[in-house]
Design brief:
This protein has ten helices and 34 strands. The chain is an alpha/beta fold. It folds into three domains: about 300 residues, Glycosidases (TIM Barrel), CATH 3.20.20.80; about 110 residues, Jelly Rolls; about 120 residues, Sandwich (Jelly Rolls), CATH 2.60.120. It binds the ligand CCCC/N=C1\SC[C@@H]2[C@H](O)[C@H](O)[C@@H](O)CN12. The ligand CCCC/N=C1\SC[C@@H]2[C@H](O)[C@H](O)[C@@H](O)CN12 binds next to loops.
């Protein structure tokens, strides 16, 4: 039976010492010696522009939350081995201090793996330079990298622990490890040792797993408090009974109560009924349980940061991480937030004062973006550096070879072993031929002359963050065949487009060629005295990437959906200088290339995708 104790007559803080502990007698947390139950929400600082961190956190506080839960993505902070970035939009301690300013506590989840629909679940892709590395195990190379990373991160965290004067009340070790094939207890023991050695004996360390015996069997460990995650579809009592199998005493905790869900390109937008979310939340709170709502503020996968799942094929995550969360992608309070807030008000006093309003949105209208060039040479790539050893974690690579024979009739260009990871845009002498796509399009017919230049622009759509047991390498990972022969003598070029775009690229030379295949389009616009949020719609475009003033807004794919607009934070715009737009279209742009700024998002329009490659 679930013997949760609702006594409220526990002693108050016995001294001035700050402490946050588990009370195994009264089945609760104790903060400074007094019973404490957290009502928390997840926010990812890495998915919200820093200019809006305080705005979102204030709305979370005004919603009645007393804590926030955050991940720390390892790959966001260690882009190259031994190179660390904790500044600007990666200033973790600035974010933690903002949370403290708002009198909110923190549940920290530093991984090292975090899942989160984030590129490679937060693990840095440079780990894969050891091709046979066994991620999330006691693999010595993996543990060496983990120890070096935690040796940098955890000392930064320690002063922010609650008992040290900060606001971090608990720290999660790994993430749903019970869902992973390896079930390597020595790995979890190693992590427990590292966390304890660095953070001390007092901090509450915990694990989170789904509510199945198999998940809890491999995800839990003696010395780590076992918590569970489940959404409104599950029976609350039954879910917590599974937690009780591993934690017969102590607080009930749902570390991820799903308020919404993630979106995949090409599939319907996910939503969860506010009423169902609120009803189940009320049951959780009535049981005296602690809860973290995942997500409370979703945000955006800017740049190339979105991850992917693997379920009957590769399923990339969309740029928007709206998650149908109580705070929208743009941080606007939704009806779901107010319904949740009224449930919370039954259990704890809400802060006085009004909920901050939605941030103003502005429809800047159409912006013309004429094509600037259709060839890769001299654009964003130094084609003199084939076979460069330069490590490139994200985005695009150019694979170039020459046709080894004349093809009078057409011949099938094919990716054996489903080896295009993840899309390859095929050009012959610079003319677009079509697209190969992982798990969808394994071959297209081409014809050409001996010695013609065959280019494959290969795009990574994000490394798998959940559901696959082997590493998700990107690029051409198996042979490409033409007819019956294997193509060889490839030269590989990294396409560092972001560096080029950030440095006042592109060239102004207009191009008159047709709008098919990978090409860049650019335009400028002014918004005199205004730099309010907006949404970018690309009617008539197919698939690509957008930069505004050098900021990489993320991927667009309107022919797939469900996302039809990209969130444009006002903080990326200038109300005094000229704003520059760069659009990389990978397949086909509209004849009169222009884009449209609108004041409302459109995240739920999916087209039934049947591959009709536009020859
Ligand atoms: C049925 C799939 C379970 C995979 N777990 C998921 S999908 C959405 C969330 C986030 O990824 C979160 O980072 C995971 O811990 C739990 N979860």
């Amino acid at each position: 039976n679930l013997d949760w104790d609702l006594r409220t007559d526990l002693p108050g803080a016995s001294s001035t010492d700050r402490s946050f502990r588990i009370d195994y007698v009264n089945n609760c947390f104790l903060k400074d010696g007094a019973r404490f139950r957290y009502i928390s929400g997840s926010i990812h600082y890495f998915r919200v522009p820093p200019a809006y961190w305080k705005d979102r956190l204030l709305k979370m506080y005004m919603s009645g939350l007393n804590a926030v839960q955050i991940y720390v993505p390892w790959n966001y902070h260690e882009p190259q081995p031994g190179v660390y970035n904790f500044s600007g939009d990666r200033d973790l301690e600035k974010f933690l201090n903002l949370v403290a300013e708002l009198d909110l506590l923190v549940i920290l989840r530093p991984g090292p793996y975090i899942c989160a629909e984030w590129e490679m679940g937060g693990l840095p892709s440079w780990l894969l330079t050891k091709p046979d590395i066994a991620l999330r195990t006691t693999d010595s190379d993996y543990l060496q990298a983990v120890d070096r990373w935690l040796g940098v991160l955890l000392p930064k965290i320690k002063p922010h622990l609650y008992h040290n004067g900060g606001n971090i009340i608990s720290v999660q070790v790994e993430n749903e490890y019970g869902s992973y094939y390896a079930c390597d207890y020595n790995y979890m023991r190693h992590l427990l040792g590292v966390f304890r050695a660095s953070l001390g004996e007092e901090v509450v360390l915990f694990t989170t797993d789904g509510t199945s015996a198999s998940e809890l069997k491999c995800g839990t460990l003696q010395g780590l408090y076992a918590t569970v995650d489940f959404g409104p579809e599950e029976n609350v009592t039954e879910a917590f009974m599974l937690q009780r199998l591993y934690e017969p005493k102590g607080p009930l905790v749902n570390s991820e109560y799903y308020t919404g869900w993630l979106d995949y390109w090409g599939e319907a937008h996910s939503t969860k009924s506010a009423k169902k979310v609120a009803n189940s939340l009320q049951k959780i709170l009535e049981m005296g349980a602690n809860v973290n709502m995942y997500m409370f503020q979703g945000g955006t996968n800017f740049g190339y940061w979105s991850g992917a799942d693997y379920k009957d094929g590769y399923k990339p995550i969309t740029t928007s991480y709206d998650y149908d969360a109580p705070l929208s992608e743009a941080g606007d309070p939704t009806d779901k937030l107010y319904i949740i807030r009224s449930v919370i008000s039954k259990f704890q006093e809400l802060p006085a004062g009004p909920m901050p309003p939605p941030t103003p949105k502005f429809a800047y209208g159409y912006v013309s973006v004429p094509q600037v060039s259709e060839s890769w040479n001299g654009i964003a790539v130094d084609t003199s550096c084939g076979f460069c050893s330069a490590f490139q974690a994200h985005g695009f690579m150019l694979y170039r070879t020459l046709l080894p024979q004349e093809i009078v009739e057409s011949a099938l260009l094919s990716a054996s072993g489903n080896g295009v990871h993840d899309l390859a845009y095929v050009l012959l002498n610079g003319e677009y031929q079509g697209t190969l796509e992982r798990d969808r399009v394994n071959g297209i017919n081409i014809s050409g002359q001996l010695g013609d230049t065959l280019d494959l622009v290969v795009e990574s759509m994000g490394r798998i963050n959940f559901g696959a047991n082997d590493s998700d390498f990107k690029g051409l990972i198996h042979n490409i065949t033409l007819g019956t022969s294997i193509l060889s003598d490839w030269i590989i070029y990294p396409l560092d487009i972001d560096t080029a775009v950030a440095h006042a690229w592109p060239p102004t030379a207009q191009s008159s060629s047709g709008h098919r295949g990978p090409a860049f389009y650019t335009g400028t616009f002014t918004t005199p005295g205004i730099s309010e949020d907006s949404y970018l719609k690309l009617p008539g475009w197919t698939k690509g990437q957008v930069w505004i003033n050098g900021f990489n807004l993320g991927r667009f794919w309107p022919v797939r959906g469900p996302q039809q607009t990209l969130y444009v934070p006002g903080s990326f715009l200038s109300g005094s200088a000229i704003n520059t737009l760069v659009v990389l279209e990978l397949q086909e742009a509209p004849d009169n290339p222009k884009v449209l700024f609108v004041s409302r998002p459109l995240l739920n329009v999916t087209y039934n995708y049947t591959h009709k490659d536009r020859k």
